[in-house]
Write a structure and sequence with these properties.
single chain, four-stranded antiparallel beta sheet, 4 helices, 11 strands, globular
Length: 187
């Protein structure tokens, strides 16, 4: 009898180590507002594969392993957004553009270079993944409390840029915990 177990996986670019350290420093500076994403989990998501069975996981692993991927340069744009896919499931949750609400992700925009777009399109198209309104970003962490969006926009964001060291296929354990299934070095 075949197993009907499925998992949620996502594909992501690793953030360069100097930028990771700058983001960790930013998290420390704003620890009163943001519960930080752990250093190991800072990434740029390229696409989600939801409820993947063993066959889909094998297909995804083959795509990641057999493709010559471009090496995107990772650079923040200065744009900050917030929101929560998890909170959207709560019927009492109401998104407010002017307010970062407790539990929402604080997301920092990443420049959409041609190499990043090529990697994102290569994964989503080859695996038939729909990603409406894709916006490349790094999640700084979850809001500890409600605070004005202007406070998030006033953060002094790192200006470093460097090539991504790798492309990962990760299993989503929880909204903030992941397990790397495949790491494909870039460059």
């Amino acid at each position: 009898m075949a197993s009907s177990t499925t998992v949620n996986v996502f594909f992501s670019l690793r953030v360069p180590s100097d930028l990771v350290q700058a983001l960790v420093d930013l998290q420390k500076e704003h620890r009163n507002l943001v519960d930080p994403q752990t250093r190991e989990h800072l990434h740029i998501t390229l696409g989600f594969l939801r409820q993947a069975d063993a066959g889909r996981l094998a297909d995804a692993a083959a795509v990641i392993s057999s493709t010559a991927w471009p090496t995107p340069t990772i650079r923040l744009t200065g744009e900050v957004r917030h929101g929560s896919w998890a909170l959207q499931k709560n019927p009492d949750y109401r998104y407010r553009d002017d307010l970062v609400q407790k539990g929402e992700q604080v997301r920092l925009g990443v420049e959409s270079t041609s190499e990043l777009s090529e990697a994102q399109a290569g994964i989503t198209q080859r695996l038939d993944i729909a990603e409406d309104g894709y916006w490349p970003h790094v999640t700084l962490g979850l809001a500890r409390c409600d605070f004005p969006r202007s406070d998030a926009e006033a953060m002094h964001l790192p200006t470093l840029s460097a090539p991504s060291p790798g492309l990962d296929m990760q299993q989503e354990i929880t909204a903030t915990d992941f397990r790397i299934l495949i790491n494909r070095p870039l460059g």
